[in-house]
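Predict the 3D structure for this chain.
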Amino acid sequence: MKRLSRYRRHKFAAPALIVAALISIGTTFSIASALPSQQRMESTAQTTQIAEGKQIFARGCSSCHGLNAEGGSIAPSLIGVGAASVDFQVGTGRMPMADMSQQAMAKKPIYNEEETAALAAYVASLAPGPAAVTNDQLTWERDGNTAQGGELFRTNCAMCHNFAAQGGALTNGKYAPSLMGTEANKIYEAMITGPQSMPVFSDKTITPEEKLSIIKWIKAAQKEPGLGGASLGRVGPVTEGLLGWTLGLGLLIGVAVWLASKAR
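Done. Predicted structure below.
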């Protein structure tokens, strides 16, 4: 203690302590400022993207959904729907649509991927909601189970989309679309957002792992070849037999009428 007390009274002790303190403060500040710099850059990019999305929304969506996405007489509020809903609806070309009284049909998207992402970011900034997903984020090929996915699909989806995922008719002129050619991320986003007449399948109802299995089964169904000519919706031999019977019977009736008319 005496030796330490002697060094403390040395004439260079105070300047050395000041220099050490300055070095310590400078090093700490450099480390602390280096970490948030990336965060600030990401925040700036996100702010720019949201601002761009707001402009796109004002031009193409506000006439139906309201200036602040609060909804209107012909279109629902978008507050809380999340980026996933926007990515699905706009990314599949279902939105924007001219006639809101009809069911939205999949078509060529009006907005490109960057514009769709900006719109999704703007709507997501209004209130929390399901986040959009990309195909790279979905590891259905590795983590999905085809057999389990088929069972889950037949239990939860086949009554609307047909047991072969070919789509089907619903009430009041609505329909469940075919899932042939649908991308994996759009299938996942549809399950977590419930577009049109489709219910929302929360993670408690169908877990994320089970959703991957459903996607894997649908992807297997998409690749399955039609070995019998015209598939007729892959609803089985009953429909094919009925079509053959109807056409065949109609042809026989036509021949009989033709022969009767020639005999007169």
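The chain has a mean pLDDT of 85.
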